[in-house]
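// run 5 | inverse folding | seed 20
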């Protein structure tokens, strides 16, 4: 038990952490579902960087160089890059590849076991779980919460909740679509209030979905309308996926003998909802702190606080600024969104947008504002803050 690590959650982020630590310390991963990667709770749209990090090229289904943004009142904005900006992955396969990396590093992965609660004392962590009707116990020196937006680990440790969230629903729908390196993004309060909808072409099927802010009508209301708008037959739906994406990390993502990573720590990007890149960064930061702490036998909250300092140094600005922009976006009416789209629809602005990186969207803000300074009047206090 002196150096045992328990990872709760067998998704890509939890398995990434396990793969980084298991060669040096006894590591167990428990996953509540019976099969890794099932059910799918993500669009599967990620940056090439994420695929490269996971070495999961075999999971790639399609590649995209840009997107066509559909704003209110039929105002469209095309953003196309010269290189691949995003890829669609088979999430079940992607997750399995990440899991195998953890196993290859020496981790023991247990499926069908649901974490219940934990207690922490001078001896370590005592975690309770349930496999079917059997109650189980795990003793460890360190516990890692990688158990998603509901994070029972985080709640057990009293670490609070995310500041914001969106609810999502998507379907795979059979259609004979032409191959395309562009995806569609739909913006507007009648389409997806507080976030956006999407259509991702993938050969014999399209992935169509919406995410909406809490307090809106259920996502299914908006998804039905989007399918109708796209003239897609709901009878051809082959798969349905849903989930919730948390934004705005808790004040603390660590505690005595405990760290939270990924959606458990609300580390998803507030502008796109993507959480794999940020989760992988967090997993790396957590492993960098966990290794020496385990070796020294010091797993105090003070020692593990170094984890939060590390991930904030790499992700903090993007997440904080993204959350500010999201708050401004949620207050915008369709007329304002249309006006912004027309402001952006200029060659010099599209050129800047075409160089963007979906993992670092805020980094483009100064260049965009330089190319289109009139944007400041739409959210002056926030947009000016991006320049500093």
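// decoded
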């Amino acid at each position: 038990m002196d150096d045992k690590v328990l990872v709760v959650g067998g998704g890509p982020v939890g398995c990434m952490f396990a793969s980084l630590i298991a060669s040096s310390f006894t590591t167990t991963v428990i996953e509540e579902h019976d099969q890794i990667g099932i059910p799918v709770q993500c669009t599967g749209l990620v940056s090439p960087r994420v695929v490269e990090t996971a070495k999961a090229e075999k999971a790639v289904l399609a590649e995209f160089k840009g997107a066509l943004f559909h704003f209110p009142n039929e105002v469209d904005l095309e953003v196309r890059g010269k290189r691949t900006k995003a890829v669609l992955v088979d999430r079940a396969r992607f997750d399995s590849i990440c899991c195998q990396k953890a196993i290859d590093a020496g981790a023991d992965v247990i499926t069908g076991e649901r974490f219940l609660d934990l207690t922490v004392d001078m001896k370590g962590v005592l975690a309770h779980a349930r496999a079917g009707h059997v109650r189980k116990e795990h003793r460890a020196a360190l516990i890692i919460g990688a158990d998603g937006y509901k994070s029972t680990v985080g709640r057990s440790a009293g670490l609070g909740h995310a500041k914001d969230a969106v609810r999502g629903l998507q379907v795979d729908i059979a259609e004979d679509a032409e191959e395309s390196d562009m995806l569609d993004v739909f913006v507007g309060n009648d389409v997806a209030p507080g976030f956006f909808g999407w259509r991702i072409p993938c050969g014999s099927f399209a992935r169509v979905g919406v995410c909406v802010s809490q307090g809106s009508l259920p996502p299914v209301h908006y998804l039905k309308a989007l399918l109708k708008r796209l003239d897609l037959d709901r009878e051809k739906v082959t798969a349905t996926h849903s989930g919730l994406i948390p934004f705005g990390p808790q004040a603390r993502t660590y505690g005595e003998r405990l760290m939270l990573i990924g959606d458990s720590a609300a580390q998803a990007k507030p502008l796109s909802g993507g959480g794999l890149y940020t989760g992988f960064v967090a997993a790396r930061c957590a492993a960098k702190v966990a290794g020496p702490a385990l070796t020294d036998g010091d797993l105090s909250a003070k020692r593990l606080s170094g984890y939060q300092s590390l991930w904030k140094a790499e992700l903090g600005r993007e997440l904080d600024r993204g959350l500010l922009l999201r708050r401004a976006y949620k207050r915008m009416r369709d007329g304002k969104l249309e006006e912004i789209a027309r402001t952006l629809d200029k060659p010099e602005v599209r050129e800047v947008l075409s160089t963007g990186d979906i993992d670092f969207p805020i980094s483009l803000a100064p260049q965009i504002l330089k190319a289109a300074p009139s944007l400041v009047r739409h959210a002056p206090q926030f947009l000016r803050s991006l320049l500093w």
